[in-house]
Amino acid sequence: VGSDPSSPLRAQSEKDAPRLLLIEGLVPFVKDCTVDLPDRDRIGCTRRALAGILSIARTADPILQEMLVNDARVAAVVTTELCQTLVTVCTIPNYPERALNIAFVCDAVSFLDAVVLSTPYVAKVWHIRNDKFVSSFLKGSLRMLLVKVDDDMYARTANVLALMLQTQALRSEPLREALASFLFENDPDLSGPAESGLEDFAAIPIPSLFETAILPRINSMNDNAVAATLSLIRVLLEQLPASFMRHVLGITTAFKIPSAVIAASGTQPEPHPKHGGHHLPQRSPSALVPVLKVEEYFPRMLVSSKGLCETTTAVFANDVLRRLLLVESMMSGEAGEVANHQPAFDDTNELLFVSELGFDTKSIPTQQDVAGNERLKRSLAAAASSHLDAGVFCLPRLNTNRFIADLSAKFAHFTEHTSAVNMELTGLASSLCLLPDCRIFYTLFDVSRRGALASVLQRKANQIDEAIQRDKDQCSKLNKDPSLIVTSKATLIKSLLSKKDPFGATISGGSGLVGAGEWANALNPQFASAGSAHVDPHHSGNRAGHNNDLDTKKFVEACVLLEGFRHEMLAITGQVEVSLKLMELAT
Fold first, then answer.
1. Please, what sign has the CA dihedral across residues 479, 484, 485, 488?
2. SS3 of residue 231 by DSSP
3. What is the pTM of this model?
4. Highest mean pLDDT among 9-18, 245-254, 383-392, 407-416
């Protein structure tokens, strides 16, 4: 508002001064709603207060908007309460109002995001991006909690951050970019102080918060921290796919297939000359796709002809499609990070390939040259075939990527984890394959090229098949004794696979199949007898018997989750093939 007392604008603001009382009346309800109300009503009270402030910020009345902008208390109160609430809910275990406070964190971040998205002028004056969101919330509170040595505190923080992203609290590009930069880009605070005169420090790469605080927790001894980490990484992958591909997987360019490879792929394509015909014709990428038999990477003895828990393949297909569309929608919001993933045939890529074949890039053979020269055609086809052997759809560096290596190591011990860890592990792996670059899927799951996930899954499948067979043989011998009633692991697995909803949770949803171990309550009698297959049934209450029952429980849960993962991967394989067909139609 103008500082001149005689200003008509100021006179008008003084005339409308009572409107400011509305703001003053709403601010106290941002967090401190009446404690006598039920939690649901308290959450609603806070949301209505924030919505009221946002409505004033969006008003077309410049005087009213200016009065709000000049009231610095609004942004300060929201940010202060946000940071304090985050620290409280993450540091205090079993906090009595945990759900209420997590809801407030999501609502407060959503409010800041909505201001940035719908009222850029107000957001600029309030310094929301740099001061409120980055300095206060991300660096002032969230970073401190993520780098804590306490695994349980870290796990609570990771779960809150994942939930905040899943509720779509961040929709504006400025805040999404700020979060991606905060997590994935080099963090100067993690480099430590550099003494003057030591120039070598300049050459030492500065790690990111993701590399130092999040990724190492995959190998934590605390199952809660591991599950929370896998869940957070999956959510980051789905919500910030371009940033994840660029900073974690090292994919900075779009998926492209040289048209020379396409021309030599075995069929006669339609001519598609460019620049006077000095380019070879394009060819459908679907003809070059490796044929993967994903079902061969899973235990044969788990396959059920009746499907999984009475769930049809259509359910898995619909779920995969839903998650794929989510990732695609988030990808479009990060357009500047990684280019569109559809196969493109640009000059640079083609010149590179043609030079690899030994041709002078200044005299690329035309379609007519190839058609009229059988020797040249055979030479080109042989060279292209060699190039295909190198893998158009393969990114070998992915198999040695640190994140992929850690993920593969967790799969190698799949039957030793709790179901909470395993369902997050399978959910993360399936979401990884839904990233908009099919090379990720074909690299990790092509066993002929030693794909990291395909190789480890195949080894684990063989181990499980052997373990189930040994257990069957042992139980057959024990069941000859009429005083013993022994249930094999195979029977327990079959029992679970035949139930409609054995875990008291949804069958699939991107984060695994089931709730963590809830099914054990319904199968206690079976597990009691399962223990007798390995220990004296008269001493099943001793420590050895207890540990054996836990091992059996983990093994059976892991097998059911692995069978569910097989269904997910079959659905993903089909979806990737459909996507490539659609690309073919679009070219």
1. negative
2. helix
3. 0.80
4. 407-416
What is the Cα 172 distance to its own chain's centre? 19
Task: Output 551 or 289, whichever has higher pLDDT.
Answer: 551
- Cα gap 527→538, rounded to integer Å: 15
The answer to whether residues 48 and 33 touch, using CB atoms and an 8 Å cutoff, is no
DSSP-derived letter for residue 434 is: T
Instruction: Count CA atoms within 13 Å of residue 484 on its CB side.
Output: 22
How many Å apart are CA 233 and CA 159, to the nearest integer? 11
Q: Which positions ≥6 away from 57 have C-beta within 8 Å?
A: 65, 68, 115, 118, 119, 122
Burial 98-114 (b: 16+ CB within 10 A, else e): bebbbbbbbbbbbbbbb
Could you give the 3-state DSSP secondary structure of residue 208? Answer: strand
Contact 431/249 with Cβ under 8 angstroms? no
How far apart CA 575 and CA 321 sit, in angstroms, is 7
Taking the C-alpha atoms of residue 534 and residue 495, their distance in angstroms, rounded to an integer, is: 20
DSSP codes joined into one string, 474-535: HHHHHTTSTT-----HHHHHHHHHHSSSTTSS-S-SSS-SS-SSGGGGGGHHHHHHHHTTTS
How far is it, in rounded angstroms, from Cα 445 to Cα 455? 8
What is the spatial distance between Cα 488 and Cα 471, in angstroms, rounded to a whole number?
6
DSSP labels, 343-354: -B--HHHHHHHH
Q: Is 4 exposed, middle or buried (0-12, 13-18, 19+ CB in 10 A)?
A: exposed
Is residue 428 within 8 Å of residue 162, measured between CB atoms?
A: no
- HSE-up of residue 307 (Cα within 13 Å, Cβ side): 13
- Residues 11-34 as b/e (b if ≥16 CB within 10 A, e otherwise) read eebeeeeebbebbeebbebbbebe
pLDDT in tens, 325-371: 999 889 865 554 454 433 333 333 444 444 444 444 445 555 555 55
Rounding to the nearest 10 degrees, give the CA dihedral for residues 323, 328, 330, 335: 160
Q: How far apart are CA 523 and CA 536, in angstroms?
A: 20
CB 446 within 8 Å of CB 292: yes
Please say whether the beta carbons of 132 and 75 come within 8 A: yes
